[in-house]
Write a structure and sequence with these properties.
RNA-binding, 18 strands, 12 helices, three-stranded antiparallel sheet, alpha+beta
Length: 423
RNA sequence: GGAGAGAUGGCCGAGUAGGUCGAAGGCGCUCGCCUGCUAAGCGAGUAUACUGGGAAACCGGUAUCGAGGGUUCGAAUCCCUCUCUCUCCGCCA
């Protein structure tokens, strides 16, 4: 959610910034509703002040029969107030829906561009594997090794689910442990294990609702949502709280499964593990002082990169352009890992700063010092990493001519010393 | 699933035959005084949001006693619905 006072005073500037996201985001309704809302508020509150002072007088009088006229008058005033308040409620709802559906303003350092084609390569790491054979896609490798079973998962549930088996299941578990251990012991994050279902208020706090309900799995009774990312429950840990400045920055890491409808992506990535309805992810979430958020984004991105470096997987860092960043984000770096079978880089982590956009929605604040008014913190998060896609990258990058997989050295302690996955 | 109890400010905790209660008191915290140091003591202050005025300091209005609705001139106090917490019973990983 944007700052209403800021938009009120800088409507053109805000509109211009939003225009760089593409689409037609008009703020014309904002001014109208804002004015209407405030004028109703003034009328209603003036009457309420009148009513309050009259009530006080009535209270002082012992013999109520002497204030009959006043009581009758106030009855009318109350009815008028009700009228204004009903109208105000309607306007407020409209106004808040409008505010909730306006995306964040891109950060000045976010490159301007229309689509993902205009994202900017910031840096690359590692050298691409040289294979003296045709690299196989991960689904063929996994099927030959009998470590992933898509067909049976489809039988159990449906399309876009996967059953991991044997060394595959263990490798996934190893990756999760490795990532969590790295972030908690080397990068200063606190591990949390949150609920995988959240309520509507939490989804609204981080920006998935009200606009993106069709992307979510929803339970009907009670109405809960399966989390599409740990960002949701973890950022909401501090919803409606005033944090101590000395507590900042707060850094959490969490492994959770993530659930996504993937509506509207029916044709894409239908084979393999790239796009699933359920996948594991280790998430990094930070609550920081507003002055630190850009520096913290660089740090957080570095923490995600470290995972790829230790796994010796080649990747590149992309700065997403204004047309490609997410709804709540003001700046985003994507990490893209090399996939030999596709001869391209694919997203494996997305690291974003949100400014005070989420904090304002979710009411997450801090005080600069004891006496000052609460201010909104800045929030950030990033994948560190998407586990399923990491598994894909390992299978594809570490494959051998005979179809076996050499396990990255850092994972071997988590695999009981196993060095290679073979038939 | 059944029975019962509860939800008040940073925390604890008063407040139900509706009226001067944004809310006693205590703790904590901040500032000042006192004290050789520490402890103790004394005094003052200490919620949030929206909104009007002001360059600002600040001043005014409104709302908020879990959430929403109702009764009333007036509700923390009465009525209804919902949410959450706790206790006991049942069931269960």
């Amino acid at each position: 959610m944007l700052d209403t006072k800021f938009i009120r005073d800088n409507l053109d500037q805000a509109e211009a910034a939003l225009a760089t996201r593409g689409g037609n985001i008009s703020l014309s309704g904002f001014r109208e509703l804002d004015i209407k809302r405030r004028s109703l508020l003034t009328e209603s509150e003036t009457l309420k002040a009148l009513k309050n002072s009259a009530s006080e007088e009535i209270a002082k009088v012992k013999d109520k029969s002497t204030v009959k006229d006043k009581i009758a008058e106030m009855k009318e005033v109350s009815a008028k107030i009700k009228g204004f308040d009903d109208e105000l409620k309607t306007v407020d709802e409209e106004f808040s829906i409008l505010l909730m559906t306006i995306p964040n303003l891109p950060h000045p350092t976010t490159p301007v561009g229309k689509s993902e084609d205009e994202n900017v390569v910031v840096r690359s790491w590692g050298s691409l594997p040289k294979m003296a054979f045709e690299p196989k896609p991960h689904w063929d490798l996994a099927e030959d090794l009998d470590i992933l079973d898509f067909e049976r998962a489809a039988k159990i549930t449906g399309a876009r689910f996967c059953l991991s088996k044997g060394a595959g299941a263990r490798l996934e578990r190893a990756l999760i442990s490795f990532m969590l251990d790295l972030h908690t012991t080397q990068h200063g994050y606190t591990e949390v294990l949150p609920p995988f279902m959240v309520n509507r208020a939490s989804m609204t706090g981080t920006g998935q609702l009200p606009k993106f309900e069709e992307d979510l799995f929803r339970l009907v009774d009670p109405e809960y949502f399966l989390i599409p990312t740990a960002e949701v429950p973890v950022t909401n840990i501090h919803r409606d709280e005033i944090l101590k400045k000395t507590d900042l920055p707060i850094s959490y890491t969490a492994h959770t499964p993530c659930f996504r409808r993937e509506a509207g992506s029916y044709g894409k990535d239908t084979r393999g593990l790239i796009r699933q309805h359920q996948f594991n992810k280790v998430e990094l979430v930070k609550f920081v002082h507003p002055d630190e958020s850009q520096a913290e984004l660089e740090k957080l991105t570095g923490h995600a990169e470290k995972v790829l470096q230790l796994l010796e997987l080649p990747y590149r860092v992309m700065a997403l352009c204004s047309g490609d960043i997410g709804f709540s984000a003001c700046k985003t770096y994507d990490l893209e890992v090399w996939l030999p079978s596709q001869n391209t880089y694919r997203e494996i982590s997305s690291c974003s700063s949100f400014g005070d956009f989420q904090a304002r929605r979710a009411g997450i604040r801090f005080r600069e010092d004891e006496k000052s008014k609460p201010e909104f913190v800045h929030t950030l998060n990033g994948s560190g990493l998407a586990v399923g896609r990491t598994l894909v990258a390992i299978l594809e990058n570490c494959q051998q001519a005979d179809g076996s997989i050499v396990i990255p050295a850092v994972l071997r302690p988590y695999m009981g010393g196993m060095e290679k996955i073979t038939k």
